[in-house]
Design a protein that fits this description.
Length: 327
């Protein structure tokens, strides 16, 4: 009896845990992205408490050379610190642009597979929405994930961690180089003091990242995926605005240049890469059409069945037949 109760509790815990995990997986992914952004700006480079200057391997190998390049362009070439930050930021972002495009390529491939598999996945999604009990929800979620896994679809949207991890040190280094390079805090750019927060640059950065988020919706046909992206559309702009409020204009200028490059990258994805991926995915599925699961729209039959060892009663019609014969 104790073992039965214990197993029942374990099953209920696993069931509840499975449903919570599935429902929260999108939110967890968003939280990871937010934490990654914080690591970009603060985790890769440390600040020496005694001197207030950046330190650490990332700063020594990447940040310090970027800072020297900014000083060289600003003083030796006479470009000024604002233009120097723009030039160095463009160079760094162009160097890591292939990684960003590769990451976006994987996410776009995932999106196009979702578009092509709409008829296969829609019954599972409908079953999940119509589920009323935890058991039915878990079964529907497991069936949906099994169908996605069968066709090579990731629950995290096809975004890999490796390209992001490679880009983090570069983002962090240029962020601190724009802020701590000697002479930046006393300089100005187009009448904007680079050592103080700028509301003009803050507004430009917010608008640019919002436009980039809007462009990311282009070509997404799956309604579920589109609704999820719409919920994320304000996340990136709000994060940039919050950082810019407490950062000097030199850092916000770096955000502005980064936003322009991200929009350029999104145009490459939308109008060069996505059409080719869409054609490729549809040709592959045309050759090997995906088959919908036979039980995708069915619910589990929970009607209790008659035990095999108990015989069923049968109506005895012999009495009536005998009486009829005797008459």
């Amino acid at each position: 009896m104790y073992i039965f109760q214990k197993n029942s509790r374990i099953e209920r815990y696993q069931l509840k845990k499975g449903i919570i995990t599935v429902k929260s997986i999108k939110r967890i992914a968003l939280s990871i992205m937010g934490v990654a952004m914080l690591l970009v700006l603060t985790g890769c480079v440390q600040i020496d408490k005694a001197t207030g200057q950046p330190t650490g391997p990332v700063w020594e190998f990447l940040g310090a050379p970027m800072g020297e390049a900014i000083k060289y362009l600003a003083t030796d070439k006479g470009l000024g610190f604002g233009v120097a930050i723009i030039v160095v930021t463009i160079i760094v972002r162009l160097l890591i642009l292939p990684l960003g495009i590769y990451q976006s390529w994987k996410a776009t491939l995932h999106s196009e597979k979702m578009n092509a598999l709409k008829d296969v996945l829609e019954p599972h999604q409908t079953r999940l929405k119509e589920a009323t009990t935890q058991e039915e929800k878990l079964e529907a979620q497991q069936a949906l994930f099994a169908a996605q896994k069968e066709h090579g679809i990731s629950m995290l949207g096809g975004v890999g961690c490796f390209p992001i991890l490679i880009q983090l040190p570069f983002f962090s280094a240029i962020y601190f180089a724009a802020q701590h390079t000697e002479g930046v805090s006393e300089a100005s750019f187009m009448g904007i003091a680079l050592g103080s927060p700028s509301w003009i640059l803050l507004a430009c950065a917010g608008v640019l990242y919002y436009l980039q988020s809007l462009l990311s919706l282009h070509g997404v046909e799956d309604e579920t995926q589109r609704e999820q992206l719409k919920k994320m559309i304000y996340m990136s702009p709000l994060m940039i605005v919050m950082f810019s409020i407490f950062s000097p204009a030199s850092v916000t200028l770096y955000f502005v240049v980064g936003g322009i490059i991200m929009i350029f990258q999104q145009f490459i994805i939308n109008y060069l890469i996505r059409p080719k991926l869409r054609k490729k995915v549809r040709e592959e599925f045309a050759k090997n059409p995906p088959k919908a699961s036979k039980t995708s729209g069915a619910r589990k039959d929970v009607t209790p069945q008659q035990p095999a060892g108990i015989p069923t009663k049968k109506k005895n019609n012999k009495r009536n037949s005998g009486k009829q014969r005797s008459r």
